[in-house]
Design a protein that fits this description.
The protein is α+β, with helices and mostly antiparallel strands. It has a domain of 61 residues. The chain is 27% helix and 13% strand. It has a two-stranded antiparallel sheet. Strands 3-4 form a two-stranded antiparallel ribbon. Helix 1 crosses helix 2. The radius of gyration is 13 Å and the shape is globular. The chain starts with 7 loop residues before the first helix and ends with a strand.
């Protein structure tokens, strides 16, 4: 990753969409993101790859670019009673 990470506001302005759309795509794993604590940030190089159609969705959000590789598969998740997601064992 190179350059500064983008915020949801910056990405929403770039795409001319509401910030809620950026967060929805992030939660669904549809765009590359890094989770820093409770905040999401967007690596510019991966966003540009996404815009060119070179980034394939399907990875998990969080960590240092997790989900940025086309071969990543998101583990199954569910929400617990406190509104937090947790990984579920695959059958």
């Amino acid at each position: 990753m190179t350059g500064r990470l983008l915020t949801a506001d910056q990405l929403a302005q770039r795409w001319q969409v509401p910030k809620s759309q950026v967060y929805r795509l992030t939660r669904e794993g549809g765009i590359p993101a890094v989770k820093l604590g409770r905040y999401y940030r967007y690596p510019p190089d991966l966003i540009e790859a996404f815009e060119r159609g070179e980034w394939v969705p399907g990875g998990d959000v969080g960590g240092a670019g997790v989900g940025s590789a086309p071969t990543d598969k998101a583990p199954p998740h569910r929400r617990n009673g406190r509104g937090q997601t947790q990984e579920v064992q695959a059958p």
